[in-house]
Amino acid sequence: FGDTCPLVSLSCFQTPQRIPHDEAVRQEFRPTKVGDSFGPTWWTCWFKVELSIPREWAGKEVHLLWESDGEGMVWRDAQPVQVRGKNTVSCALISGDFCFHFSHFYSLTVYVEVACNGLFGAGKGSLIAPPDPDKKFTLNKAELVVFNRDVHELLVDFEILVDMAKCLSLLTLRSFQALYVANQMVNLLDVTDSCTFPAVRHLASSIFSQKNGESQHTIHAMGHCHIDSAWLWPYEESIRKCARSWVTVIRLMEKNPEFTFVCSQAQQFEWVRNWYPGLYAQIQDYAKEGRFIPVGGTWVEMDGNLPSGESMVRQFLQGQRFFQQQFGKLCSEVRMMKTMNNNRDKGRVNHSAALFGFGDGGGGPTQKMLDRLKRMSDTNGLPRVQMSTPDRFFSMLEKEKTQLFTWIGELFLELHNGTYTTQTQIKKGNRECERILHDAEVLSSFALTQKNTFQYPSIKLQHLWRLLLLNQFHDVLPGSCIQLVVEDTAESLLVLNTLPWERTEVVSRTGAKTLGAIADGSVTMENGVIAAHLDSMGRVMSLRLVHSGRESVQDGHCANQFVIFDDVPLYWDAWDVMDYHLETRKPITTLLKPLEIVLAGGLRGSVKFSLQISERSVITQEVILDAMCPYLRFLTQVDWNEAHRFLKVEFPLQVRSMNATYEIQLGHLQRPTHWNTSWDWARFEVWSHKWMDLSEHGFGVALLNDCKYGASVHKNVMSLSLLRAPKSPDATADIGPHEFTYAVMPHRGSFQEAGVIHYAYNLNFPLHTVPAVSAQCPAWSAFSVHSPAVVLETVKQAEDRLDGLVVRLYESHGSTVVTWLQTSLPVKEAISCDLLERPDLSSHLPLEEHGLKLSFTPFQVRSVLLILRQ
Ligand SMILES: [Zn+2]
């Protein structure tokens, strides 16, 4: 910077709320000065800045130099205009041109909105530590300065040469050439004499202008800014982060006609649309030009593992429909957050994509990054760099696609295994919300077909879906979630089954009697299907199939064994479980209340016991066996007050297999049960949905759950991960009471033949009982699917047709099948459609006597649009 000049006046006003500009400027501002502090954390300080540019600076590039803690946004004429960049101290408020041509703006007033948090929140002492609520923020500098553009250009030149010297392989001559020129530049430069600058720049350009050979790789550069929709800051701050980052992008677009920016997450566009309509209009203009490019097609960048299959579908349905409505176009690429840092295609294809810009907490590209890219467009020894778009990049790749490697199977990230378990209430809430929305849609759809005055609650459901989709964002944070209160009523009951198969289950606990204690404290439970023998600590000593007598539990071991581990990751507390935690395994064997019988039998038998985990934590469990049910259910309550400990439950089984099977979204996959290679070993903690299974030929055991996601199977021991106690970024994570259910199901044959998938759905979607309106309600079934391999996952109203339902089915066994979908609903027409509900008009499905004939390949997902008779 050159000359400086003080501001005319500076005043401020503080508020604990995040308020709109119009409201802020009406408040009473008090004088303030450089050096003053403001805060505390999460407050906002609005500064009113009056400035006047000296006449003698006319024609010069004048910047407002603003240096304060906290993230800032500059407002002029009620519009956000500029942001304080991450690593720059200057805010290019007024360009030289601007000043020269518009001298009547010689004096002006701007507002600076400073959030009392940094780009990464306000962690106390370290990045991921819980926020410090009492942080103070200081204004360090506020003045007008003359910006030395030629010094800036020299610095950019020089830094690239230094980077070339450092980063290019020492085996190439090129790094030495760069170092030699950089050295010459230093020798030639006299910093006090700007007349030496042109010759110095000329030296640098002698390197930049040396062109590449034909073999050089091409990099498709696209600006990007990763903004976590919530992470170390709340959702509300993310809204402002979007605005701050995207304002910067718009300013850069004005100055750099070649600059392109890719931007994901429909939710963030929706936020800016609602809160910053002026900015949003500018974004839409640049989107029309194809430079501000919506990508990804999803509502948020969701976690890739834990959302259900239908949630994954809805991420795209809500996201793509938003992009279509707002920008007239669907996104043609998917963006998943998991990356594999291993470019096996190098040498085979000649194009790569590079997204650049500060991220996570927002920020995005800077002018300096663009200046560097321009210099590196075609410089010998560096890859060719061009501003590009996803379309351009992928069409280049498509030309070379026969050369590309293909990855089959799971993209397993060897990191952050703890996130399958941390914040179990959010996970439980997620599973519950998915179930509630499923049931609400199924029942609303049926109501629609039964009564034409019924208003399908589509707006309400869309709102709730979007809320759930937002909370599936890829950083685990406490999020609000709807809850269903199940009405338990007595006498006349109507039983509702929202799953597409017949079920025989116990829905109430009437007629129970309690028996006295048993001599050695153990108890046997049997229902004609399975027989379990439990010791006084609730451990399953034996679990047999009654018919064959086949034992499930490994000799000399006991199942339903709670174990606890020390859980101290190297850094990422809430995220990571390290392999070394396994060395600290301790079985929990301190009995608080021995096993006692709660319900003696009839339709339901159950026993109860309590264990002491530590002085501060207790497990209470009710083990339940229902009539005709093939699984033993464990209704578990834990009062959890631990630090850096990991609770699991183990089932050592009499089953030998190289692989275990785990449910994933709309299917399942197998993972090894051994640790032969580093890749096998890395799977010491994996994710799974409603069930996992360990089977040998003719027999197996499945472990079902109603809200857990972390699991592992090593050798013959199945473990379900129950609770963790990390302290960062939330010091209170998982502390307090918990309730969850899991179940063990021994079975003959394969898990497919035994119906494990159906039983896992049953455990997750309990039958609803509601008071019946009349004494006699005839049995009624809306849908049935003939093949047990095909699951009818979803029934909902069509997005674009009020007289239509969309049903979604998938093949769950990994088999090729042809099946019938039968319905008692008044369907007049059936058309295949895709996940975005776009009908395939060439695929009208004939309505036959047995219903609709549908064929499936392994794991195929099919959606069908059913048009109803009015
Ligand atoms: Zn992120």
UniProtKB/TrEMBL annotation:
Residues 414-493 form the Glycoside hydrolase family 38 central domain. GO terms for biological process: mannose metabolic process; oligosaccharide catabolic process. It holds the Pfam family Glyco_hydro38C2. SUPFAM superfamilies: Families 57/38 glycoside transferase middle domain, Galactose mutarotase-like, Glycoside hydrolase/deacetylase. It comes from the Eukaryota. Keywords: Cobalt, Cytoplasm, Glycosidase, Hydrolase, Metal-binding. One of its GO terms (cellular component) is cytoplasm. Its cofactor is Co(2+). Belongs to the glycosyl hydrolase 38 family. This is Alpha-mannosidase 2C1. InterPro entries: Ams1-like_N, Gal_mutarotase_sf_dom, GH38_C, Glyco_hydro/deAcase_b/a-brl, Glyco_hydro_38_C, Glyco_hydro_38_cen, Glyco_hydro_38_cen_sf, Glyco_hydro_38_N. It is found in: Cytoplasm. Signal peptide: none annotated. Its EC number is 3.2.1.24. It catalyses: Hydrolysis of terminal, non-reducing alpha-D-mannose residues in alpha-D-mannosides. GO terms for molecular function: alpha-mannosidase activity; carbohydrate binding; metal ion binding. It is an enzyme of class 3 (hydrolase).
